[in-house]
Design brief:
Strand content: 15-25%
Order of helices and strands: EHEHEEHEHEEHEHEHEH
Largest sheet: 7 strands, parallel
Shape: globular
Strand order of the largest sheet: 1-10-9-6-2-3-5
Helix content: 25-40%
Structural class: alpha/beta
Radius of gyration: 17 Å
């Protein structure tokens, strides 16, 4: 892992966007992105949109695969992840809607839909860069604590804490679906690069467990310790429990120029 500690949420978004843009540039015009929903990556998408607007990033031929989708929520529902991805990723990044896919949470055969999604990712050549957030309980995607490290796209029952955290997006708390289709931990680990963003003190325990704790299914995000290219970008509040925070700051300040991606900022 490379741990980058930024002063605020906007800086997290700028740095994460610069890293994503670097990977896309290296991968070429038909790069494949993995995109997360939730509030954590919004600043990243906003800064990617600025790069697109400036003409320094072109995603018109790129593909994107969403991490997850609620089961039973129609695509037209404003809080379906198909709709959220359209608003926050596809439109502002000027991507071709036909090249942006989400799991089919309304399929008649959910198990087959999960297998189909895995096949679609594989047929696209795999994900070049996966954008992630992390839940307060350490989940990535909707892989709740206890998820298999080898898991692939499948249906999951959302933990009560996850549904409570997502209730702010719905008129009523009981309107949050209980199930989702999510890429598995094994699927996420197949991405060639991972960029995870986290902001706020409410994520501090999860960030510390992910980065410095043991690799355990109790904190699914900790599996990223085994990823070859994982960039973790957090703000000061989310970094407050990191025992080696000073080293992470020093390491980032003194990284060799050839490892940098600041030219994208």
């Amino acid at each position: 892992m490379e741990i980058i500690i930024c002063p605020d949420v906007d800086s997290v978004g700028r740095v994460a966007a610069a890293k994503v843009a670097q990977v896309v540039a290296d991968a070429g015009p038909q790069a494949v992105l993995g995109v997360a929903t939730g509030s954590s990556p919004l600043a990243t998408y906003e800064h990617l949109a600025k790069l697109v607007e400036a003409g320094s990033l072109d995603l018109t031929q790129a593909r994107a695969f969403a991490l997850d989708e609620y089961v039973g929520l129609p695509e037209g529902h404003p809080e379906s992840y198909a709709a959220v991805v359209r608003r926050t990723v596809t439109e502002p990044l000027r991507m071709d809607p036909a090249r942006v896919q989400t799991p089919d949470g309304c399929a008649a055969d959910i198990a087959q839909a999960a297998k189909d999604y895995e096949r679609q990712i594989r047929d696209a050549g795999g994900v070049d860069v996966q954008v992630l957030g992390i839940g307060g309980n350490g989940h990535i995607g909707f892989n709740e604590p206890g998820s298999s490290f080898a898991s692939r796209t499948r249906i999951k029952t959302l933990a009560a804490a996850t549904r409570a955290a997502n209730a702010r997006f719905f008129p009523r708390a009981d309107g949050v679906p209980r199930h989702c289709l999510t890429q598995g931990l094994g699927t996420i680990m197949d991405a060639r690069e991972v960029v995870l963003v986290a902001q706020g003190a409410q994520k501090a325990d999860a960030v510390a467990a992910m980065v410095e704790g043991p690799v355990t299914a109790s904190c699914p995000g900790s599996l990223l310790q085994f990823h070859e290219h994982a960039t973790i970008v957090v703000d000061e509040d989310a970094a407050v429990h990191l025992a080696r925070a000073d080293y992470y700051r020093e390491s980032y300040r003194n990284k060799p120029a050839w490892q940098g991606f600041e030219d994208k900022l």
